[in-house]
């Protein structure tokens, strides 16, 4: 920080720190709440005793209640300080996160506001601390920027700050950020508090290196000397203007040397150093220097103290002073000299918004002393409206991007007169590269500007026309070498081609092109040549015009890139060919309905040639089959920008009618305006004939279906009637046969009894056959109602009934759990009754029967199966299984009518599924079905 007056030192209250100056910015790394209290309680106790306003912003692990309790225990009469408003202890949510988010400028302005209020109330300054435990990863960058800003400006204020960071939350990179933004750090190591000094000088040098790397061009080309030195006088950074003024070979030679030998009067340097230590900055300071060759020079400069580094700008006014030496010893003479040169200086503190001007600014802008409000906004109001945005852009580019700030623009005086000024400025940045201050000068150049305006305009016009014209342009001399190439051409072929042969650049060849127009005598009109396949297969139209430059003949070449146009033409040709080759008729009209183009298919469809159709209105095809409302709807639709589709009947040139399916689509320009309509017409004569045939077939099918339905009803009535008529005699035969066996058994011999038993069995089998036929009929006609059905439960229910009927059989049913399907429960129950019933029947001769229900995947589809280990069947006869009355076993082997599997087949078919079986004789069978 350099030497500090003892009256400026404040008791820190922290034993290992001792006294510190205003502008001290420290950080503390802590592990626990106790660490915080050990440092901050004596820190604030000393602040209260020093008549300073104290502000403590808390966060975890320390609450407001903890801080108040600790201060009460350490400071006698603590509540009197609270009552008098000398100390505030608040949570971080009321300060850093006020409003729910962190905002750098609001917090910084808040500290300055607290300081101003404290000074107004008679306190010596502001002592503060803020805990950062609340910072999330997403907030770290903005808070680090805030700390860097605080570090860069705190030296200007009567503030002492200790920022506290949890070492357990900080990563290595974050610890480095914290150290870079503070003058020193307090940390406990091995149980003992230590102070780690931050090398502010090293930070300044690092900043200087950064400035030189990023803004070396701006500094070297500035019109004023820009340099930075240490308090001891060592030159840290200098620009080219500084080296030129003091006689150094370069800015690099000046770096590292002492500034003191360059002062004609070293005592004056001590004087301005004293002013700097008191005020922090000096503006418009005039002093005498000595060049390396011993020549005296006079400089006008401004200096700002930043830590232990001086940032300076200076303007060489030696020549001016030679004519005004008699005025140099008084302030009035200095003002007259400043007025004579038309130079004023300014300093804009970007962080605080404070803007300071030298007195010359006011008369330069047409104001009397004290009339001009020295603010950036007031300055902008004086800038000519046509130049204002350009000035704003230049300032922003300098601050945000580091661009050079040197601009000439007009200002309008209060009396409405227009004047010209030249502004030059440089941005000062902190160690993180953030812009904190902008320094510069303003010079009245009205006279020079007026004299140079016309010449400048002419020069700029010619240069801008050549550089910014969209077409490529070059100039070739008589030896076919390029002597000029504009930017548009450089963008295509690259820079650095001036001096090369034109054919080496454009064709990458060692000899002149065969079709080169330059083989003819140079000059004499313009020749145009189209060249393709150069620079990435581009196509150029090149015009060659002879011109005279410097008394010698040259050729002006203008390159028009027509690659896009060629591709568009090719694309248009392809599209046009495709439309012309389309099978459907296509008509293009304007918005008035006038035909502009038709394809060959149109001629084939209508009989009108393209020449006969173009220029006509499509109404020439009207047949009279559609009314006016039809065409009104058509035009209302397309004129509204919508697509119209419909069928119509049109008339050919020969008078024959034909049906047509037509789609009319609006065609829009790039701006979205409807410019044309395109109609696609399809002859649907064949389709209409087919539709009529289909309609006739549908009618025939309806009639046939009605006939079938009537026949089915008659058949159903016949079936029920027949079954009823058959049942009656069958019941009589069965009944009388049973009566004979019961009443006349003693009169019948065994053979007679056997005949009656066979007679009864045949009548019962006939009755069962009639019942099964009716079941098969009902399956076909029954309604289908699909619901979620638990097939596993259904299988278990059928199996239980079978076992109840023959409990003595050694039989096992294995039913997979949780099988559910969407089907008609009543119909599918018949599937299970027949399939499981068959499995039960055909395993009756097995000593140990096994039947299984489950699911599998067949041909990528879920299938259900019922498997048994019974008699099985020969696969050669598998095709007969599901046909009515077809049996693979005799009735004496296994009873049945041959209807059950036919019922299964029809139920599955009604569900849209299929059923099939696999088996072998004596090894069981498996029936599969899908739903």
Topology:
Elements: E1 9-11, E2 19-21, E3 25-30, H1 33-49, E4 53-58, H2 64-74, H3 78-83, E5 87-91, H4 104-120, E6 126-131, H5 137-153, E7 159-166, H6 172-180, E8 184-189, E9 192-197, H7 200-221, E10 225-230, E11 235-238, H8 240-246, H9 251-254, H10 266-279, E12 281-290, E13 296-306, E14 309-316, H11 318-322, H12 331-341, E15 343-349, E16 355-357, H13 361-364, H14 376-382, H15 385-401, E17 405-412, E18 418-429, E19 435-444, H16 446-468, E20 472-477, E21 482-485, H17 487-493, H18 502-506, E22 526-534, E23 538-549, E24 552-561, H19 563-581, E25 585-590, E26 595-598, H20 600-606, H21 610-613, H22 628-639, E27 644-651, E28 657-668, E29 674-683, H23 685-743, H24 750-781, E30 787-790, H25 791-805, E31 811-815, E32 820-823, H26 825-842, E33 849-858, E34 861-868, H27 900-910, E35 915-919, E36 925-929
Explain how this protein is built:
With 931 residues, the chain is an alpha+beta fold. Helices cover 41% and strands 27% of the residues. The chain contains 27 helices and 36 strands. It has a 7-stranded mixed β-sheet. The radius of gyration is 53 Å and the shape is flat. The two termini are 91 Å apart. The relative contact order is 0.04. Residues 1-7, 200-219 and 326-331 have low confidence and may be disordered.
């Amino acid at each position: 920080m350099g030497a500090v007056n003892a009256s400026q030192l404040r008791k820190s209250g922290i034993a290992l720190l001792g006294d510190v100056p205003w502008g001290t910015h420290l950080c503390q790394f802590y592990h626990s709440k106790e660490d915080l209290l050990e440092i901050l309680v004596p820190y604030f106790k000393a602040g209260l005793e020093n008549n300073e306003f104290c502000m403590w912003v808390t966060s975890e692990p320390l609450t407001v209640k903890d801080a108040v309790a600790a201060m009460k225990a350490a400071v006698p009469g603590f509540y009197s300080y609270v009552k008098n408003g000398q100390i505030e202890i608040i949570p971080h949510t009321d300060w850093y996160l006020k409003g729910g988010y962190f905002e750098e400028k609001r917090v910084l302005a808040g500290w300055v506001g607290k300081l101003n209020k404290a000074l107004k109330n008679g306190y010596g300054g502001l002592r503060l601390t803020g805990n950062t435990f609340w910072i999330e990863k997403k907030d770290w960058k903005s808070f680090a920027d805030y700390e860097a800003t605080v570090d860069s400006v705190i030296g200007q204020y009567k503030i002492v700050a200790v920022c506290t960071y949890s070492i357990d939350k900080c990563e290595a990179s974050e610890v480095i950020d914290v150290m870079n933004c503070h003058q020193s750090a307090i940390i406990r190591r091995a149980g003992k508090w230590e102070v780690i000094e931050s090398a502010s000088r090293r930070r300044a040098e690092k900043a200087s290196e950064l400035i030189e790397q990023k803004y070396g061009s701006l500094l070297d080309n500035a019109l004023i000397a820009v340099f930075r030195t240490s308090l001891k006088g060592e030159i840290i950074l200098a620009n080219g203007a500084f080296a030129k003024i003091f006689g150094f070979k370069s800015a690099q030679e000046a770096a590292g040397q002492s500034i003191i030998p360059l002062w004609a009067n070293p005592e004056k340097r001590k004087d301005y150093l004293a002013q700097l230590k008191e005020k922090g900055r000096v503006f418009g300071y005039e002093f005498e220097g000595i060049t390396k060759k011993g020549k005296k020079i006079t400089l006008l400069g401004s200096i700002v103290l930043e830590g232990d580094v001086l940032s300076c700008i200076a303007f060489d006014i030696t020549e001016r002073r030679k004519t005004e030496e008699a005025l140099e010893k008084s302030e009035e003479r200095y003002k007259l000299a400043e007025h004579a040169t038309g130079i004023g200086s300014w300093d804009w503190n970007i962080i605080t918004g404070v803007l300071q001007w030298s007195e010359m600014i006011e008369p330069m802008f047409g104001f009397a002393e004290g009339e001009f409000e020295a603010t950036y906004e007031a300055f902008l109001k004086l800038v000519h409206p046509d130049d204002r945005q350009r000035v704003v852009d230049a300032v922003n580019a300098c601050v945000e991007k580091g661009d050079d700030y040197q601009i000439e623009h007009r200002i309008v005086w209060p009396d409405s007169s227009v004047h010209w000024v030249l502004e030059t400025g440089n941005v000062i940045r902190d160690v993180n590269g953030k812009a904190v201050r902008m320094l510069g000068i303003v010079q009245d150049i009205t006279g020079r500007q007026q004299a140079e305006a016309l010449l400048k305009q002419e020069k700029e016009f010619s240069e801008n026309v050549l550089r910014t014209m969209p077409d490529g342009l070059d100039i070739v001399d008589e030896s076919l070498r390029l002597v000029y190439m504009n930017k548009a051409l450089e963008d295509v072929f690259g820079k650095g081609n001036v001096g090369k042969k034109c054919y080496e650049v454009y064709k990458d060849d060692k000899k002149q092109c065969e079709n080169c127009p330059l083989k003819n005598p140079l000059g004499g009109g313009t020749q145009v040549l189209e060249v393709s396949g150069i620079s990435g297969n581009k196509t150029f139209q090149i015009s060659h015009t002879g011109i005279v430059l410097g008394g010698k003949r040259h050729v002006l070449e203008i390159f028009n890139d027509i690659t896009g146009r060629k591709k568009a033409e090719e694309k248009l040709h392809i599209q046009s060919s495709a439309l012309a080759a389309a099978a459907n008729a296509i008509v293009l009209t304007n918005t008035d309905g006038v035909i502009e183009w038709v394809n060959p298919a149109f001629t084939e469809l209508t009989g009108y040639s393209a020449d006969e159709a173009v220029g006509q209105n499509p109404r020439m095809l009207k047949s009279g089959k559609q009314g006016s409302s039809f065409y009104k709807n058509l035009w209302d639709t397309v004129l509204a920008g919508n697509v119209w589709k419909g069928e119509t009947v049109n008339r050919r040139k020969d008078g024959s009618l034909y049906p047509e399916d037509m789609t009319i689509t609006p065609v829009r320009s790039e701006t979205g305006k409807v410019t044309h309509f395109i109609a696609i017409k399809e002859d649907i004569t064949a389709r209409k004939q087919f539709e009529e045939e289909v309609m006739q077939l549908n009618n025939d099918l309806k009639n046939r279906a009605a006939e079938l339905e009537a026949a089915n009803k008659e058949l159903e009535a016949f079936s029920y009637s027949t079954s009823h008529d058959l049942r009656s005699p069958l019941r009589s035969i069965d009944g009388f046969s049973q009566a004979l066996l019961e009443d006349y058994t003693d009169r019948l011999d065994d053979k007679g009894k056997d005949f009656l038993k066979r007679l009864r069995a045949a009548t019962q089998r006939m009755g069962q056959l009639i019942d099964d036929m009716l079941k098969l009929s009902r399956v076909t006609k029954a309604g289908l109602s699909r619901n979620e059905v638990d097939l596993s439960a259904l299988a278990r229910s059928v199996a239980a009934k079978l076992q109840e009927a023959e409990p003595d059989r050694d039989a096992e049913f294995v039913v997979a759990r949780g099988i559910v399907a969407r089907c008609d429960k009543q119909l599918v129950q018949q599937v299970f009754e027949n399939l499981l019933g068959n499995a039960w029947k055909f395993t009756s001769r097995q000593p140990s029967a096994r039947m299984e229900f489950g699911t599998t995947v067949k041909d990528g589809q879920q299938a259900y199966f019922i498997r048994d280990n019974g008699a099985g069947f020969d696969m050669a006869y598998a095709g007969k299984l599901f046909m009515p009355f077809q049996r693979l076993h005799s009735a004496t082997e296994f009873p049945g009518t041959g209807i059950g599997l036919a019922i299964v087949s029809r139920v599955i078919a009604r569900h849209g599924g299929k059923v099939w079986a696999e088996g072998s004789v004596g090894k069981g069978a498996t029936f599969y079905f899908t739903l």
